[in-house]
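#lab-general

N.A. 3:47 PM
ok so I finally got the sequence cleaned up, no stray characters, all 458 residues accounted for. can someone with queue access submit it? mine expired

B.Y. 3:52 PM
send it over

N.A. 3:53 PM
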Amino acid sequence: MIVSVVNKLMRLPEEFNIQMRGLLTEEWEEFLAVWHVPPHLGLRVNTLKIPVDQFLKRTSFHLEPIAWTTDGFYCSSEERLGKHPYHQAGLYYLQEPSAMAPVACLDVQPGDKVLDLCGAPGGKTTQIAASLQGKGLLVTNDIKAERVKSLVWNVERWGAGNVVVANEDPHKLAVSFPGFFDKVLIDAPCSGEGMFRKDERAIRSWSVYNNESCAALQKQILEQGALMLAEQGRLLYSTCTFSSQENEAVIADFLSKHPEFTLAPLPLEYGWRPGLAGWPETANVRRLWPHKVRGEGHFLALLEKKSTGEIRAKTGPFMTAPKGLDSFWSFMEENLLAIPAGSLVLQEPFLYCVPPGLPDLQNLKIVRPGLFMGILKKGRFEPSQALAMGLTPGSVQRKLQLAVDDKGIERYLKGETLMYSGSTGWTLVCLEEFPLGWAKQTGDYLKNYYPPGWRLMG
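B.Y. 4:20 PM
back already:
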């Protein structure tokens, strides 16, 4: 065991070791001890699809509650929960336990307008979407196009319809959304020191994404996020680094320039600790140290905005109802019992259902302006996987509900044709009452429309 600790420490940057000794002093040895302990794993239940108590009754997973959440649990890697059909059905998200704290502290309520400014890969976005319970609006953004792909996948698997996905620079977002959001989350890009134990890639990239360059970027992002927050709104700034330069110093600098903001107190429970001594103006921030909590390193600061009399972004409708949707309406009449709330927008050949209350998005790079409904193809409409994941068996004309141990589940998730009889037409394939995707009934078999990028391999 001693050898494993030494080997791990030898891979850590020496400059990082020096900094941490200075930060932790008498706790340095206690901090070192966590390096030979495996990182904790977490699971968060999708309450858009199933209440927590019903999820616990339905599953036999070995779970233990995470103290700072109502829907998060510690889990075991031995159960391979990422391969379970319930995961494919979007019933839970596998997320590091400390990473669940920022959204829990933001206290999102149904009906809020929320911005997740640095949203990829989507863990915190899905947590916000569950908190909204289908009411209000969530705009989630990431500046890197490659990272947005995982963000879209997680939003669609989650079954959230009131979500807009953007791939834009925060400066440009701020032009379109001044004073618009009730809640803003900035899980800022950082040097990632808090993830060293969990991901060795963070160790290798530390010298590139150093504290100084990260702090400069974080200050810019925080400035833009603040512009988009409404009066009396709340902004949660978080990082997964230990650096005071990226944490207390960023918040202190922001407060010195923005008297309209104050720091709201956060819990001193669960092993959470105050910010570092020497920063009295940031006394209400919280640090999650891996030697004090069952999770990785995290920093939390909750900012509240006073009334300033500023102008809030004007909202729509800015889009006209599209024409030429006869095939879509025929699909709806033949297959669905209700249409999701919102306005239909056609970006040929893609059809979306856009949540109400948005400002003009015309000058922004929007990957998903709302729920992706499907594609118009030469006089016919093909429904999307995103639409399927947001439905229930009671909202469609035809469905196939399979038990979790039915062999058809695995075959469907691998993209294979299913041999089941039924009435001809589009069919929602479900794991119990939870949708997995579309198939099309023809005679005694179902043609599989499960997307290739979602399929299980092997």
